[in-house]
Amino acid sequence: MYIRVTEISREGMDLTGARGNSWIGNLLDGMDPSPLGSIRILSAALFLSLEGRDLEASGSFVAEGECSCDRCSDPVNVRMEKEFRTLFVPRDHGPAGSADLELLPDDLDLGFYDGAGIEVNDIFWEQVVLTIPAKVLCREECRGLCPRCGADRNREDCGCPAETGGTPFDVLKTLLQEKE
Ligand SMILES: [Zn+2]
Ligand SMILES: [Zn+2]
Fold first, then answer.
1. Could you read off the pLDDT of 60-98 as tens digits, one per residue?
2. Which residues contact 123 (CB under 8 A, 6 or more apart)?
3. Alpha-carbon span 59 to 57, nearest angstrom
4. Contact 131, 63 (CB under 8 A)
5. CA-CA distance, 22 to 35, in Å (whole number)?
6. Measured in angstroms, how far is the CA atom of residue 79 from the centroid of ligand 1?
7. Cα 89 from Cα 168, distance rounded (Å)
8. How many angstroms does the Cα of residue 80 sit away from the middle of ligand 1?
């Protein structure tokens, strides 16, 4: 969704107030969610305001994605959320054009725009990508697939010899088996 700077009033523009909630559904259309298999936005907010020709965007989102566990390849749901503030400076200003940019507060990111308007989807894509995890486990202690026979070791004990020394638990199990 494209917003022209001329649409933004002096008080700023609250996207949800100005457009209802319909803009949220299509926000991530066409985005490559990899390594996630899919991604959708659950809620989002965005406030745009102008300071001269500089455009400040502050917003937040909650998104949910699906991918496979890195060890056992079971499906996993991932939840991502973030708050952000970005100051978009007209590209024709150039980074050297505004000397006071060096005084930007820490929580304010810097971006560029053409000075005429901004694509809201791009703002969110950039922020959502930052929250996508590179690796996901179904749970911290996931035992993964057996590298020898491919069995899901969370569900069954295939009995293949462990590739490394084994855990204390394995040693105990061996002792118990020997008693039988
Ligand atoms: Zn797993
Ligand atoms: Zn095995």
1. 999 999 999 999 999 999 999 999 999 999 988 655 555
2. 46, 57, 59, 86
3. 7
4. yes
5. 27
6. 17
7. 59
8. 19
Q: Considering every ligand atom shown, identify the ligand nearest to the alpha carbon of residue 144 and give its number.
A: 1
With tokens 């973030």, the residue in question is 82
Cβ atoms within 10 Å, residue 23 = 18
Length in residues, the chain? 180
Rounded Cα–Cα distance for residues 71 and 92 (Å):
48
d(C-alpha 124, C-alpha 82), whole Å: 10
pTM attached to this predicted model: 0.77
Which stretches does DSSP call E strand in the chain? 2-4, 13-14, 38-51, 54-68, 75-90, 109-113, 117-119
Q: Which tokens in the block code for residue 158?
A: 């295939």
What is the per-residue pLDDT across 91-105, written as a single tens digit (0 to 9) for each?
A: 886 555 555 666 777
Which residues, by Cβ under 5 Å, contact ligand 2, an ion?
146, 148-149, 151, 158, 160
Distance CA 83, CA 44 (A): 10
